[in-house]
Amino acid sequence: MSVYEQSALATKHALPSYLNADEIGPWGTYLQQVDRVTPYLGSLARWVETLKRPKRILVVDVPIEMDDGTIAHFEGYRVQHNLSRGPGKGGVRFHQDVTLSEVMALSAWMSIKNAAVNVPYGGAKGGIRVDPRKLSKGELERLTRRYTSEIGLLIGPTKDIPAPDVNTNAQIMSWMMDTYSMNTGATATGVVTGKPIDLGGSLGRVEATGRGVFTVGVEAAKLIGLPVQGARVAVQGFGNVGGTAGRLFVEAGAQLVAVQDHTGSIYNPLGMDAAALQEHVREHGGVKGFPGAEAIDTDAFWSVDCDILIPAALEGQINKDNAERIKARMVIEGANGPTTPEADDILHDKGVLVLPDVIANAGGVTVSYFEWVQDFSSFFWSEDEINARLVRIMQEAFAAVWQVAQDNKVSLRTATFIVACKRILHAREARGLYP
Q1: Mean pLDDT, residues 299-307
Q2: Is the pLDDT of residue 252 over 90?
Q3: Is Nucleotide-binding one of the keywords UniProt gives this record (predicted)?
Q4: Mean pLDDT, rounded, of the chain
Q5: Are 279 and 239 in contact (CB under 8 A)?
């Protein structure tokens, strides 16, 4: 039995009783990552089980009246993984494939991510199992408001602060903020981040995650001797994260040679106009039909000649079936959990540098932190100031992770977990157990 299979088996047996042991899912991936970092925690390892158990899980029924007068029920979740370092922080996603295992894992990765960039948050995440494309705007608003009311006992500006994620946006956050405010009897702008500017949102928030991906990518490229000028970049997912990162790389002199999203895959070995592609996606809902490239098979995307690959879609996209075919020198994870542990090992053996999600895509939560701080003070910063603060934090966080990786001769993912887990467990140890 391989080391990977042994780890997967141990993870399966460690699953809580409320999950299906036959499908360990994303939570199982996270547990394997914790197992890999445990030998580097020293005396803090006695607290490691803290990381393997979410502090609080809320599963809610979300009934709404549909436009045709029928009543529909949807299942919603809010998971608080760890609150040792501060209030919970993490997005809310609306997707037909949302599962409890997924939301648990995403909440845990938020704990790691927040600690890695050293913002004073714990990790949380939420979601509703629904295809929002099948709902009218009125139905979507009623769903959002009912869900917010159902999880209202957990969230709050000093308790747990939701944010946008897959298929949620500033409008969803506005409805969530208004619902919470109405229920508590006072306007509470700090209960969510990712809001419109007029409701206490922050400049720079929309592009923050993609800008963070670009920033750590540039820092890593310097360290491995990969010139960004002329580098060939492939991006999976071309929304706020992938689109922004792709455009910034092109502006820095790179070539955007391949892009894939839910509508199709496109390729141009001479490079594409990233800004024009972003506009095409806004107008047509995806990359399909973009005149500046040719369509390729979905599977062929993973075999294109490129130097930098940015998976910025959903989790589990790079796996044992396609990792061997990846030709990039560097993978920058814009999405949460896009690489399975087995694929991680394959890429490592191939000499591919993987910049893990828990550091690479932390730009979003960093600027969410800025938004939260601005809401508390009612004093707002310029976009240039926000971007400068973001770049500095991301550069410092990446430098610390890189040094730990060199000192311990481990991957950047394990190094990020070492940095983050030590910070979380130091807080846990210092606070002690109550009562």
Answers
A1: 95
A2: yes
A3: yes
A4: 94
A5: no
Candidates 52, 125, 409, 422; catalytic one: 125
Nearest to 332 by CA among 352, 351, 360: 360
The residue type found at 69 is G
Please answer whether residues 89 and 123 qualify as being in contact, where contact means their C-beta atoms are separated by less than 8 angstroms.
yes
What pLDDT digit, counting tens, does each position of 113-142 carry?
Answer: 999 999 999 999 999 999 999 999 999 999
Distance of CA 321 to the CA centre of its chain: 23
Token digits for 248? 């910034």
**Residue 183 marked as a ligand binder:** no
Instruction: Write down the pLDDT at residue 10.
Output: 53
The answer to whether 101 is annotated as binding is no
Alpha-carbon 303 to chain mean position: 24
Does the fold of domain 207-359 match that of domain 24-186? yes
Under 8 Å between Cβ of 191 and 116: no
Give the Cα separation of 77 and 69 in Å (integer): 25
24-186 has CATH 3.40.50.10860 classification: yes
Give CA–CA dist 142/259, Å, rounded. 35
* 89 is annotated as contributing to ligand binding: yes
Measured distance CA(190)–CA(317) in Å, rounded: 34
What does residue 2 show for φ and ψ, rounded to 5 degrees?
-70, 165
Write the pLDDT tens digit of every residue in 378-418. Answer: 999 999 999 999 999 999 999 999 999 999 999 999 999 99
Told to judge if 125 belongs to the known catalytic residues of this protein, a careful annotator would answer: yes
Which residue in this structure is represented by tokens 């500017």? 197
Task: Indicate yes or no: pTM above 0.85.
Answer: yes
Q: Looking at residue 3, what is its pLDDT?
A: 44
Q: Helix, strand or coil for residue 80?
A: strand
Indicate the burial class of 58 (C-beta count within 10 angstroms; 0-12, 13-18, 19 or more). middle
Q: At the fourth CATH level, which superfamily is domain 207-359? A: NAD(P)-binding Rossmann-like Domain (3.40.50.720)
Amino acid at 396: E
User: Is 113 annotated for ligand binding?
Assistant: yes
What tokens appear for 339 in the block?
Answer: 């690489």
Cβ(312)–Cβ(235) under 8 Å? yes
pLDDT band at 8 (very low <50, low <70, confident <90, very high): low
Domain residues of the chain, as ranges?
Answer: 24-186, 207-359
The average pLDDT across 217-233 equals 97
**Length of the chain counted residue by residue:** 435
